[in-house]
Design goal:
The protein has about 270 residues and is an alpha+beta fold. About 35% of the residues lie in helices and about 15% in strands. The chain has eight helices and six strands; from the N terminus they run ααααβααβββββαα. Strands 2-1-6-5-4-3 form a six-stranded mixed sheet. Strand 4 (about 165-170) and strand 5 (about 175-185) form a beta hairpin. The longest helix is centred in the last third of the chain and has 29 residues, at about 240-269.
Length: about 270
């Protein structure tokens, strides 16, 4: 009995030693790691399309959404003035005001008018519709005329506005129209709808023709004075009546003389 108890005690001792060795060799459990956070990267702008700065207003998108500005949008893009507007709204603190002609306004022009313009004239036409400052409708009451535009100033580029209680009139010397509505406005950009294209004199006014040279005064005819030794033609004179008169006188005289001689001869006898 004692022998069995010794064997059992020895077995338990061996199991305890093995358990201690196994526990000492096992690695300490590592703490659970949080899942990796994936940060989404913004898409890289392609070379053909630069990323738009946050908050910059897209003029052509506004006009497209409003509708009926197809031709004006086409001019903005073909003349690259769309990019000019983008830069101005990004860099300028004074803002921009645009008078946007509707498609109906362009349809009132003479057929083929836009096709006859050079690229430079088309660019000037678009710039003539852009004022380099933000103007609210109330500011038209105090603005100074003529308004300066991107096309410039001067007698060939006049743009005058007159504010009335219920309307704002615009004149260029060739165009007379009024604002027909507000397309968009904030504290930096104002776009107003107009029903006529603003025509600058610099492009559409007929050039005054150069004055014609003064005609030389006609020379007065001079009288020809005949030379002293020049023989003047003598008009023929009808002397037939004078010859007849002389003939009759001579005959009459002869008759008288003959009669007198005859009387003297008779008296001598």
């Amino acid at each position: 009995m004692k022998q069995q108890h010794s064997i059992f005690s020895f077995s338990m001792l061996l199991l305890s030693i093995c358990y201690i060795n196994i526990f000492a060799q096992s690695p300490t459990a590592a703490p659970a790691q949080a899942p990796a956070v994936v940060v989404a990267q913004p898409p890289v702008a392609t070379p053909t399309q630069a990323a738009a700065p946050h908050g910059i207003t897209n003029v052509t998108k506004i006009l497209e959404k409003a509708g009926h500005f197809t031709i004006f949008i086409r001019l903005l893009r073909s003349t690259q003035e769309e990019n000019h507007l983008f830069s101005a709204l990004n860099d300028s603190s004074s803002g921009v005001t645009i008078f946007a002609p509707t498609d109906g306004a362009f349809s009132e022009l003479k057929s083929g008018t836009l096709n006859t313009l050079s690229d430079g004239d088309k660019s000037e036409l678009v710039k003539f519709h852009v004022v380099p400052t933000f103007l609210s409708t109330s500011q038209f009451q105090t603005v100074s005329n003529p308004l300066g535009t991107w096309a410039g100033t001067g007698s060939r580029l006049p743009l005058n506005v007159t504010s009335y209680p219920n309307s704002v009139n615009i004149t260029t010397g060739l165009t007379n129209t009024s604002l027909s509505g507000t397309v968009y406005t904030d504290n930096q950009l104002a776009i107003y709808k107009i029903e006529k294209v603003l025509l600058p004199k610099d492009i559409f006014a007929s050039k005054a023709p150069a004055p014609a040279p003064a005609a030389a005064a006609p020379e007065k005819p001079t009288k020809t004075v005949p030379a002293a030794n020049a023989e003047s033609p003598v008009a023929p004179v009808d002397i037939s009546s004078a010859v007849t008169f002389m003939h009759d006188n001579v005959v009459g005289s002869l008759v008288i003389v003959a009669a007198a001689m005859f009387a003297c001869h008779v008296e001598g006898f």
